[in-house]
Queue: 2 jobs
Job 1
Amino acid sequence: MVKTPRVTIALRMNKRRLIAPFLRQLGGDPYGLGRAAQSVRSEELVARTQTADKVVQSICPYCAVGCGQKVYVKDEKVIQIEGDPDSPISRGRLCPKGSASEKLVNSPMRETRVKYRRPGGDDWEYISLEQATDMIADRVIKAREETWEEETEEGEALKRTLGIHFLGGATLDSEENYLIKKFFTAAGAVSIENQARI
Ligand code: SF4
């Protein structure tokens, strides 16, 4: 007869019950804090980190501390995120928020589409990323044209706009911030900020 995993576990549990806990402790766990106290079921459990196909080093996206993360991937899906001991910043630690960042990736509540509420609208509607990008570009161009300041009243060059401001967040990495600063400065904006700084 082929034993199913459930039958196998049941047999092992019965066998284990026959050995008194005291005797199990004598097998190398005198205080009963390790394997002597372990149930058969927990013995069967395997950490997700052990079944991953690959591990990718990354940075926590939440705040400016920039703790190092190890992202465990299986079948091209993120299955676990843990602190990276090699990070000189966090040395393997993550705060509760960073520890839960696997949920940021896999939560069914994660918003992956662009939501838009038009002027006067009383509800959100979904639009394509292309449409949203075009709408933002149109607004930036219009605001720049309408607020452009070529020179002061005395004729000194200004070449700026006070109609466009940029406020970045902690999820932006250094490269993105570099490009954002370069782009908005080239467009003539002077108010370019990021809340993430240490
Ligand atoms: S783990 Fe916590 S402290 Fe570290 S970067 Fe993420 S949110 Fe910030």
Job 2
Amino acid sequence: MESPKALGLGSSLMSVQELAKEPMLVIPQPYIRSEEEEPSIPSHGSHSLQTIPVIDMNRLVFGQTDLELVNLHFACKEWGFFQLVNHGVESSVVEKLRNEIQGFYKLPLEEKMRYKRKEGDVEGYGQTILMHENQTVDWADRFYMITNPVYRRKDHLLPELPSSLRESLESYISVLQKLAMTLLGLIAKALKIEEKEIEEMFDDGMQAVRLTYYPPCPQPEKVMGLTAHSDATGITILLQVNGVQGFQVKRDGIWIPVNVLPDAFVVNVGDVLEIFSNGLYKSIEHRATVNSEKERISIAMFFNPKFQSEMSIGKQWKEFLDYNDSIGFIFHDDAKRLDRGAKNRYNV
Ligand SMILES: O=C(O)CCC(=O)C(=O)O
């Protein structure tokens, strides 16, 4: 990994937030995206009218279940994304966490550095993990932690957070775990498979959380808040914490902005669910852009199968072998991503 000095960033490699406070005429080179990576937000044309589907959890569970299951199936199949409303998570839980995360990012850098990511680790507070030379650094600070199984929590991270943040995060994690399991059960129904099959795979699975802070950038079109990627998860549940827009999903080669809906979560299908569903559900690329005026904060929770569990396509699709049986893989505990590249290597 490049040293901060080699990148010409000094201590700012540990914090884009601090870098963004400095007067800046030009954006430092490590953050500059190449031409084709620059944001291309559609502001007109038919694509600007497209928006990701909205799923009403209340209708799914208590109301017109069959109709809403069709909508859920469509969203996972055609978009790989949906906004979830009427999810039943108490607004006080979200509100408390919202304030706490905003408070956390207002702490002096020295305080946040108590949780800094250590050399060779993926967990902790820091910036883009640099895997190769000339890699562009995202315009964001992040704090990533494994939260489940509980014995995998790192002593110096979640347990050491300021108590009010820790408590609100714990409450949030616990309600989102329930929400995720309910959603996975409904996804099983939409896929017309036994709920047990999905529940057993995800029950007490590997879960992680990422808090991201995107500072304003004087030249937002030159940088990227979060490089385009798909998630190596079962499902991911995202909260756009402070209501600032910037999240985008790719559809037919075009980046579609995701509107901030009050009290909604953005849910997406990850690579694991794509493979499990024999490619029926899509793990879609997404990214985050930044703007010149407002900071943006998000919290993403990642829900995965159990560590070391054997993964492959669900029983009922095995005979079709579009996603051939040989792609069964172990869900590793060393944070190796099963990314789209990896899937391609399996020739699927
Ligand atoms: O910050 C966002 O809006 C997106 C976050 C995300 O996709 C991630 O953390 O993987």
